[in-house]
Design brief:
The structure is a single chain. The chain is 22% helix and 40% strand. β5 and β6 form a beta hairpin. The longest helix has 14 residues. It is globular, with a radius of gyration of 12 Å.
């Protein structure tokens, strides 16, 4: 079950990012975190940029609506999604269970 923090006009959730993968894709949920695979190495912010682009494209929102708020140098990151509701998150990413706090 994906753990999501709900704000006034945003959602925050944790990601587990796997760099140097074979494809850029959202894999599913692992230990309450969204698991994301990216093809680029974690050098000079390339993986972070790819994560933002992937989430923005998947959720059909502008890249400026996806912000990494914690964990820029870690595989575990917290992202803020502005203008996205829980139903959209579930539908666009294929997530079944969401725990809102």
């Amino acid at each position: 079950m994906l753990k999501v923090k709900k704000g006034e006009n945003y959602l925050e959730l944790e990601l587990k990012v796997q760099p140097r993968s074979s494809a850029n894709k959202v894999v599913g949920v692992e230990q309450g975190r969204l698991k994301v695979k990216v093809t680029v190495p974690p050098e000079k912010g390339k993986a972070n940029q790819t994560v933002v682009e992937l989430l923005a494209k998947s959720l059909k929102v502008p890249k400026r609506n996806v912000t990494i708020v914690r964990g820029e140098t870690s595989r575990v990151k917290t992202v803020r999604l502005e203008g996205v509701d829980v139903a959209t998150l579930q539908k666009k990413l294929g997530i079944k269970g969401v725990e809102i706090s």
